[in-house]
Design a protein that fits this description.
Ferritin; 11 helices; mainly alpha; 2 domains; globular
């Protein structure tokens, strides 16, 4: 059973990562519709604004109480986030609230000292709000995927990308529900499950990057392809670890090394996109988005290694 302090710190750390991920998912959906589906674009924009609000509420609550490890990890923001947002505003005209990123850059880590029932209730209310919004977003994403697969809608997002972002939203809800029930986490059991989840996500990131690069970027395409194959293998090994047929500590070690390498590739790619050195149809914010997810996974893997 989580203490009140653990509940507050873990909840706010989760929001700083996932509320930003959800608002960016909404933006990626919004930007990929054709003019015929302007109503869907408007709904996606409404979701983006709702998660802007959730993140905006989480930031002041988190100041001074969120885990310093979360802030140091690069999963909340990276050195490229603000520039990626500004470039994305320029390219799309969507007014992303960059002040949230600037506020996050000023966040201080710390601990909740003693019982704080007022803060605990505020965090619980924010969790409930995020659960409702994310469940509605999952339904919206599922509706889009159904229409795309039935050839009733065209979007510039791959069907697999829509499936990919549904999974992440479902994970956010599951983790929030665990926190609302004040359930602690069994690191040994969670490690294999989350390694299976995130290794698959990392494999798909590599494949999305491969598919969005300009065809002449042959070296980058080749590298992304190799990362995709490597993480497909790591996904299988994580599944075998769940089934107790592969040593879990070996999966963690291999996943950590591979994710570090993929993180560096994503960071270099984001820099290259922002500097206009890489030819692609990757919107700058997408580069930073997948970089933050790799940083989040590396923090989890670091916990699993210690655990």
């Amino acid at each position: 059973m989580l203490s009140g302090a653990e509940f507050i710190q873990q909840s706010l750390g989760l929001h700083l990562f996932f509320a930003r991920i959800m608002k960016e998912h909404s933006f990626f959906l919004q930007a990929a519709f054709t003019p015929r589906d302007a109503d869907y674009a408007q709904r996606a924009d409404a979701f983006r604004r709702e998660f802007d609000g959730i993140l905006g509420d989480a930031i002041p609550l988190a100041d001074g109480v969120v885990s310093p490890r979360v802030l140091r990890s690069g999963e909340v923001i990276t050195p490229f986030t603000l520039s990626a947002e500004m470039a994305t505003i320029f390219f799309t005209g969507v007014q992303i609230p960059t002040e949230l990123t600037q506020e996050e850059a000023q966040l201080r880590g710390g601990d909740v000292i003693g019982p704080n029932p007022v803060l605990e209730e505020k965090v619980s209310a924010l969790n409930r709000r995020a659960i409702r919004a994310t469940e509605e977003l999952i339904q919206f994403k599922g509706d889009i995927l159904t229409n795309v697969l039935a050839c009733k809608m065209f979007t510039f997002n791959y069907p697999l990308l829509i499936t990919h972002i549904i999974r992440e939203a479902e994970l956010y809800v599951r983790q929030l529900r665990r926190l609302q029930n004040r359930e602690g986490i069994n690191l040994e059991r969670a490690a294999a499950q989350l390694e299976f989840f995130w290794n698959r996500q990392m494999a798909e990131h590599a494949k999305f990057i491969r598919g969005l690069l300009e065809p002449t970027e042959e070296d980058l395409i080749r590298t992304a392809h190799e990362f995709g194959k490597e993480f497909d293998q790591l996904t299988e090994e994580a599944k075998e670890a769940i089934d107790k047929t592969f040593p879990p500590d070996k999966v963690t070690q291999r996943s950590f090394r591979a994710t570090e390498e993929l993180r560096d590739f994503k960071a270099q790619g984001t820099q290259g996109i922002l500097a206009c050195r890489i030819r692609s149809i990757i919107i700058p914010l997408l580069g930073d988005h997948v970089l933050r997810e790799a940083n989040h996974y590396l923090r989890l893997l670091g916990m699993f290694k210690k655990g």
